[in-house]
Every structure is written in C-alpha cells, then in structure tokens.
Amino acid sequence: MIVSVPKETAPGETRVALVPEVADRLVKSGVDVTVEAGAGAAAHHPDSEYVEAGAQVGDGWSGEVVAKVAPPSNDELGRLGRGSVLIGFLQPLTAGESVRALAEAGVTSFAMEAIPRITRAQSMDALSSQATVSGYRAALIAAQQLPRFFPMLTTAAGTVRPAKVLVLGAGVAGLQAIATARRLGAVVQAFDVRSAVKEQIESLGARFLELDMGLEDAEAAGGYARQLTDEEQAKQRDLLAVEIGKMDAVISTAAVPGRPAPLLVTEAAVMNMSPGSVIVDLAAETGGNCELTEPGETVVREDVTIVGPVNLPASMPDHASSLYSRNVQSLLELMVKEGELSLDFDDEVLAGACITRDGEIVHEGARAAAGVTA
Ligand code: NAD
C-alpha cells in the first residue's frame, strides 16, 4: 500500500502532512510512502531526509491514500483517482462545494476536523495539536506587539509591573495561550462560557474571570460550547467591555464549531483599553471575536493594535507538521491491516471522520453544509 504526500499549494501553507520521521515509521511498518518533490521544504524537511527515511520522491497524488494538510483546490481534486482515500483538513461544516466535488469524484475522504473527540482518538486529534501551536504563537505575538514588558521586573531604574492579559475562550488554544503568557510572567485572567474549564485555568496559575451573566453552563455535546442566545451575548459583551479596559493584552480564541465566531470585543471595549494595548484575535478566520479585526491584517485603532492572524500553525511549520504527522499516522494505523488498506466503517472513529464515500456525502454536518436533504 502506498501513502502519498503532495506539496501543499494553498497560499501561505507551509506545513506538510508527513514529516520524514513519521514516513520512516510508516515505511518500517510495511507501508510505502511517496512524497512530491519539495513537499517538506517549507517545513524545513528537504527531499533528502525523506529518501533517507526510505520514502520515494515522486507523484504526490499516486497513493491509495493521499495525506494532505489543507483542503484540495479544484485543480488538486482532478488529480485524485476514483476510489482513492484522502485525509486532511477538509472543512466539512463550511466548505459545502468542495465536499460535494469530493463525493462526485468518488473519493473516500476523511476530515481531521471530524475525528470524534473521544479518549481513544486523542492521538489523532489534529484540531488540538494545531490549536496548541496557535495558542502558543498568539501569546508570543501579544508579547511582541505590546510596548511593555510581560513580566514584573525589579531593576535599579525602578519596578515594572507585569502585564495584565485576558484570554477569552479557554479551549485547547486558549489554555496554551494562558500557559505561554504565564511563562512569560504576565498576570493572566481567562473567561469561558463552559464552567468546566475554571479548574484548568486555575491549574495554569491564571484567574477565572467571573462574569455575572446569569448563565448556568454553556457546554454542549462533545465538550464544545453551545451558541449563546442574542440576549446572553449582548450581556457578555457589556460585562466584558469593562474588564477589557483594565487589560494590556487580550487574546481571544472563542469558537463554536461550524458557526461564525461569537463577537465578544466591541469597538466600545477597544476604546476602553489604554493606548498601546494589544488584541490578538485567533478567531479572525471565522469572523473574529473583535468587531475591529481584519483577517490576516494588523490594524491600529485609537492606539490599540489588533492582530487578526490566519493559519497561525503555518507560522511554525516544523513542529506543527510533526504533531500533525503523528495525528495522521495514528489515523492510518486504524486504516491499515497487515500492510493493506482495510477500512472498517463500524469503527466509530473512521465512521465519524468519513465525509464522502461511494459517491455520497455521509457526514451529517457536511450534508447540511452542502445542502443535501435526506
Ligand atoms: P473551540 O475551538 O471550538 O472553542 C474554543 C473555546 O471557546 C471553547 O473553550 C469554548 O467553550 C469557548 N467559547 C465559545 N463561545 C464562547 C463565548 N461566547 N465566550 C467565551 N468562550 C467561548 O474548542 P476546542 O479548543 O477545540 O475544544 C473545546 C473543548 O472540547 C475542550 O476544552 C475539551 O473539553 C473538548 N475536547 C475534548 C477532547 C478529547 O476528549 N479528546 C479533545 C479536545 C477537546
């Protein structure tokens, strides 16, 4: 069986689906690996490392399984053979058209986003592995942009107070942002609508920001947040506007799967911040948690710098690719039996992650996104 790895072509995508170390493990397990020339170059893995690992350099689209990072472009879709298996981030809840095209092309596709978040599948959880990178980078961006120190310093020239950082949304990215900002010495507070995270926030040395929203708990299925009602959201924004005004930096990571990001930071809240303050909005790609965010841009409004990074994992391609590759390897281990491709759709992980199969869209959320009625 051959797993092939194309070079990513999406603008700004620097990651590669399999790093040489993981290619080596696959080869040793009896799976052949073919990588397109230069596939790992932007992640700092030259072709020679893949050759050393026992992989071939050749057609990245030729495998029975094609492992990718970003969703395939229209051109790339044409290179996938009927009956081939595609693994990657496929945006099943939002990219209806490309999911339809995958079904029409007869591709059996598995979305890394759709892997059930159950204990057994933790090693395949690419949302978590990449969110870890994003959260870390977001804290570094905030520290870099802030014209002040993060840590408290006692110097001969006087004492510097530590920066106050607020993290909104304490999922995987938020928790990593908290940990990183803490390591840099900031005083960190964090808020989430899921009360279960209070303990996790506190275990990282941050304070859980209590907002008197009259909200019981907004945890929905699978450990995700539910969408708040309009009234709840308005109340949250008003209460947050006051707290945000006390901060040097805000890192916002709030998301609700398959929906636009909740708006948490209004223009009025930005105006409350002191000159020189910073907002890093990790939700920029899905509409932004801040009203003034421009995706992919850094804007300055009323002397507050608002950074709206897109695809942050691609800004750290070496480790982001390593973690992603291990996620892919774990998924492949479920798909390959004695060196042969063997897809067991009774397995809840494979069944949950499968988006298209036998010419049909089989994933419920993807069917809705593609406008397929039952
Ligand atoms: P996510 O990226 O969907 O959302 C980020 C955070 O934003 C979440 O913590 C969410 O509660 C929060 N949020 C949503 N609306 C908000 C609002 N209006 N105000 C403030 N915060 C808001 O989430 P994620 O990081 O991918 O994962 C969330 C949770 O899923 C995890 O913390 C965990 O409980 C669960 N999870 C489980 C597993 C597993 O069991 N294998 C793996 C990963 C995650």
Describe the structure.
The protein is an alpha/beta fold. Helices cover 32% and strands 17% of the residues. The protein contains 12 helices and 19 strands. It has helices at 20-28, 47-52, 74-77, 96-104, 126-145, 172-183, 198-203, 230-244, 267-272, 317-335, 348-353, 364-369, and strands spanning 2-5, 32-35, 56-57, 65-67, 85-88, 108-111, 153-155, 158-160, 164-168, 187-191, 207-208, 249-252, 278-281, 298-301, 304-307, 336-337, 340-341, 354-357, 360-361. The protein has an 8-stranded mixed β-sheet with strand order 3-2-1-4-5-6-18-19, sandwiched between helices. It has a 7-stranded mixed β-sheet with strand order 11-10-9-12-13-15-14. Strand 7 and strand 8 (158-160) form a beta hairpin. Helix 5 runs parallel beside helix 6 and helix 5 runs antiparallel to helix 10 (317-335). The chain is globular. It binds nicotinamide-adenine-dinucleotide. Nicotinamide-adenine-dinucleotide is lined by residues 117, 119, 122, 125, 127-128, 131, 168-174, 191-194, 223-225, 228, 236, 253-257, 262, 264.
